[in-house]
Amino acid sequence: MADSKRKQHGDSHEAQRGFALDVVRTLRDAGHQSLWAGGCVRDQLLGKRPKDYDVATSATPEQVRGVFGMRRTLPIGAAFGVITVLGPKEAGQIEVATFRSDAGYSDGRRPDRVEFTDAQHDASRRDFTINGLFFDPLGEQVLDYVGGQQDLAAGVVRAIGDADARIEEDKLRMLRAVRFAATFAFELAPDTAAAVQRHAAEIGVVSAERIGAELARMLTHENRRNAVCMLRDLDLLAPTLPELAGLAAPEFDARCKTLKRLADPTLPLALAACLPRSTRSPAGGRLCRRLKFTGDDANQTDWLLDHCPVIEDARAVAWPKLQRVLAARGAEDALRLVDAEQEAGSPETEYCRARMALPVEQWNPPPLVDGGDLIAAGFQPGPEFGKLLEQIRDEQLEGRLDSKQAALDYLRSRDATSHNER
Q1: Mean pLDDT of 237-260
Q2: Which residue numbers delimit the CCA-adding enzyme C-terminal domain (predicted)?
Q3: DSSP letter at 123?
């Protein structure tokens, strides 16, 4: 990350942290218990910078809106006791949730009804002990009703209470358990792992969007190989990434090694790395559409599958063909994927990077003509225009054409020859 962006990100984080502190203080001054809750407490205790802050409180949603005012609050999650409090532009917004107990999860995601309660009962309805912690930022004190601090210290992801019950409430928790364990390099508690394995086949009730979001976070994290192996061991890989689960053991191991060698990959790059090198479009796009990734992710994944072979054979490929790949948006990802396929790097990618290090006018000069030039020169517009422009570009990259006039003369000569042959 560039220094300016890093500073901006740091400033934004400090602004949100300060706003989260103000929210707690304001609620406290109004006579309500209020604490930081969940992931921000976990991350802080792990020495990580929280991505955002959540506040839990004894105030009801109506009381939260009364404290902060209607214009500064949004009641989007009020039915579940959650009010969004709007902060200064640089701080963003904070979700303030009333302490609650949940009853029934008939849709496997959200509680059928909630009852407002106290902090201890609120902690017990959360998913994992490491996410069930509260922190009083004014008194600098952790409130732990579920053994979360002990599990953080031991490096364990453990469901709160009955692991089967926690998963029955929301099947996505199976993937969240894997993500937390893999990204923090933790272990799954035996009872939690066993419950995940018992319910793995039920992950299909979760929407593709939610499954895709969890997989994207795992595959773009540095511990992605561990996540994939954990998904396989817990029988979650087949129902979520069947393309990877169906591979023979040697190919699966090869995919895992490639995934591990990638540094900070984009999602399309990670997805392409999951698939055997013999895979071509539209397999990547099909995978992306199934998991509701973006159309751009689908196009980029398919592009990598189709064009990495050109990089792998770079020195034997005609320069115009290779040049088009190197000049494309996904070229750097293609080079990284080909490098990651081999432990010692690739001479083919070295060759490509040497070409790309030349002055841009040498390896990627502006095209000599465009469609407008052809029309102005008297050529009739039509479906052949693209092919003509491609031929001129090939001749230019091969060094046989070096000016607009030369390009147009080439086309007229080509037309005359074709006419005489007819």
Answers
A1: 96
A2: 287-408
A3: H
